[in-house]
Specification:
The protein has 100 residues and is mainly alpha-helical. The chain is built from 4 helices and no strands. The two termini are 19 Å apart. The model has no long low-confidence stretch (mean pLDDT 85).
Length: 100
């Protein structure tokens, strides 16, 4: 799990860095029309947090739905209910927001 989290963090950081590099001209234009450095930085940080939160929530929802589908498919093998670790899933979403 630790390696998977490290890979996820590196993926988020890489995506954000590429986004900033590709949008240098756009940020220059925003600075030219009056945005301060702080406002530009806040815009980038807000964007990264929103993208990270969206990805984490989507991952939790899709993972829960797939877990439910697998549990239903295994009812004949004795799996009668699905137990979701809500606390852990919330921690992952919060962690994604912090990393983002």
């Amino acid at each position: 799990l630790g390696v998977a989290m490290l890979i996820a963090v590196l993926g988020i950081v890489n995506t954000l860095a590429l986004s900033v590099l590709e949008r240098t001209r756009e940020m220059g234009t925003l600075r030219a029309i009056g945005l301060s450095r702080g406002q530009t930085m806040r815009m980038i940080m807000t964007e990264s947090v929103v993208i990270s939160l969206f990805g984490a929530v989507l991952g939790v929802v899709v993972g829960g739905a797939l877990g439910l589908a697998v549990a239903r498919g295994m009812e004949d093998q004795g799996v009668s209910q699905l137990s979701l670790p809500w606390g852990q899933m919330l921690a992952y979403v919060v962690g994604a927001a912090v990393v983002g």
